[in-house]
Amino acid sequence: MDNKPKVVAVIPARYRSTRFEGKPIAKLCDKPLIYWVYIQAKKAKNIDDVFVATDDERIKKEVEKFGGKVVMTSDNNPTGSDRVAEATKQLDADIVVDVQGDEPLVKPEMIEQAVEPLLDDGNLQLTTLMTKIDNPGDFIDSTVVKAVVDKFDNVLFLSRSPIPYPKSRQNFVIFKQIGLYAYRKDFLQEFKKMGRTPLESVEDVELLRAIESGYKVRGVETTYKMYSVDTLSDLIEVEKIIKMKLKTGEL
């Protein structure tokens, strides 16, 4: 009997956005942005299936047009993880990877890295990717979530503030969180039931909900970089990168 856990990737996508309405279906090289996220997730070796979770028929139509799978959700989910939790309630899965819908250049290897600790440690419930900060500006940028971990790489805290504060001149590695998470499905359902917690609301960082509730979140270091599309200008820059990668056969 095959006891290998079933792993699915779910891409939360909403049409309404303060900075960029309709972002998931904005065109990148004549394809909707969500298409590029989807095909990258499909390439991950330890992923059995990929779904888009949305509450908007326009996104559903575009995803189905390129042959993608869609799960419709309600429109009152406060975070992407809550939307993914609602979607996966209907799915056959043991492990669920939350892949951000505005990361068209996400590496399949990043998804694999997030999943591996859950396959290796049956007691672990949740992972998040993180990477070393090499740009000093990121340390003070409130849009960049900093991650402080213990010596076992369990996350102690996540903050938009510059932490840990460099009072001494001792060299110290500073990490930023990458918005790619892997959950056990059962835990993800519990996560949704918890509701938003005080620190999660103050920082607007959803994984603080798990930390505040006493659960371990394993930080998984990656050297890969993300290219988030938050604005129209980001879309233009990412399109240039995609065109270059298409020419070189990287995509």
Instruction: Please estimate the helix content.
Output: 25-40%
Kindly report how far apart the N and C termini lie: 36 Å
Q: Based on CA inertia axes, which overall geometry fits?
A: globular
Largest sheet: 9 strands, mixed
Oligomer: single chain
What is the averaged pLDDT score?
Answer: 93
Order of helices and strands: EEEHEHEHEHEHEEEHHHEH
Let me know the CATH homologous superfamily. Spore Coat Polysaccharide Biosynthesis Protein SpsA, Chain A
Instruction: Please indicate the percent range of residues in DSSP E strands (runs of 2 or more).
Output: 15-25%
Structure commentary:
By secondary structure, the protein is an alpha/beta fold. The protein has helices at residues 33-42, 57-65, 80-88, 108-120, 136-140, 185-194, 198-203, 208-212, 232-248, and strands at residues 7-13, 27-28, 31-32, 49-54, 70-72, 95-99, 126-132, 146-149, 155-159, 175-184, 218-221. The protein is built from 9 helices and 11 strands. The strands form 2 sheets. Strands 1, 4, 5, 6, 7, 8, 9, 10 and 11 form a 9-stranded mixed β-sheet that branches. It has one domain: Alpha-Beta Complex (Spore Coat Polysaccharide Biosynthesis Protein SpsA, Chain A), CATH 3.90.550.10.
Quick rundown:
This protein has 9 helices and 11 strands. It is an alpha/beta fold. The chain has a single domain (7-248), classed as Spore Coat Polysaccharide Biosynthesis Protein SpsA, Chain A, CATH 3.90.550.
